[in-house]
Specification:
heterodimer; A: 111 residues; mainly beta; seven-stranded mixed sheet; four-stranded antiparallel sheet; 11 strands; B: 113 residues; six-stranded mixed sheet
Chain lengths: 111, 113
């Protein structure tokens, strides 16, 4: 089944404790991205990657890092999380100018 | 810069009634436009998309949308709403990379029996 998976689905952590949210897709898509969803703000893009070793900032990249060492994986790294990064995070992938497939989301709470 | 406005935060309709969700976009060139639906606790699912050609596009679940360049709009419609359509709906426009999506703030749809 074609899908985008994210882990963990739920995470509660404390300020400053490094964390990684994994994202993996099995559709051989070149393009992957990360969004955060906040009430009243919709989804905002954090980072995206056009292919392996090619990443670029989206609209709200501050406080986040990404890497794309393999085509299927695109982890999101928060090196020193802060409470304002409490949010719902979505990973997405697509093959070209086409439909973006979204993962199920990761709900992160930073205390 | 690209942007999307969904002026209705929350809409309530009766089951069986028609539905129109509004979306206005700002983009300098011909836009790529999308409508996504998010059911409670779920990810986003693509309903339909417009890249070029016929300005009336058909999507899944009986939805359609019409691209009107003169009004910078891409409104979503359904002739008869079902209770299962209750969800949040997001309009999005693609940026210069066409994969860089800019989302509206969403419209929450409630369906009453």
């Amino acid at each position: 089944e074609a899908q985008v998976t994210q882990n963990p689905r739920y995470l509660i952590t404390v300020t400053g404790k490094k964390l990684t949210v994994t994202c993996s897709q099995n559709m051989n898509h070149e393009y992957m991205s990360w969004y955060r969803q906040d009430p009243g703000l919709g989804l905002r893009q954090i980072y995206y990657s056009m292919n392996v070793e090619v990443t670029d900032k989206g609209d709200v990249p501050e406080g986040y890092k990404v890497s794309r060492k393999e085509k299927r994986n695109f982890p999101l790294i928060l090196e020193s999380p802060s409470p304002n990064q409490t949010s719902l995070y979505f990973c997405a992938s697509s093959s070209d100018y086409n439909e973006q497939f979204f993962g199920p989301g990761t709900r992160l709470t930073v205390l | 810069a690209q942007s999307v406005t969904q002026p209705d935060i929350h809409i309530t309709v009766s089951e069986g009634a028609s539905l129109e969700l509004r979306c206005n976009y700002s983009y300098g060139a011909t836009p790529y436009l999308f409508w996504y639906v998010q059911s409670p606790g779920q990810g986003l699912q693509l309903l339909l998309k417009y890249f070029s050609g016929d300005t009336l596009v058909q999507g899944i679940k009986g939805f359609e949308a019409e691209f009107k360049r003169s009004q910078s709009s891409f409104n979503l419609r359904k002739p008869s709403v079902h209770w299962s359509d209750a969800a949040e709906y997001f309009c999005a426009v693609a940026g210069t990379g066409a994969n860089n999506l800019f989302f509206g703030t969403g419209t929450r749809l409630t369906v009453i029996p």
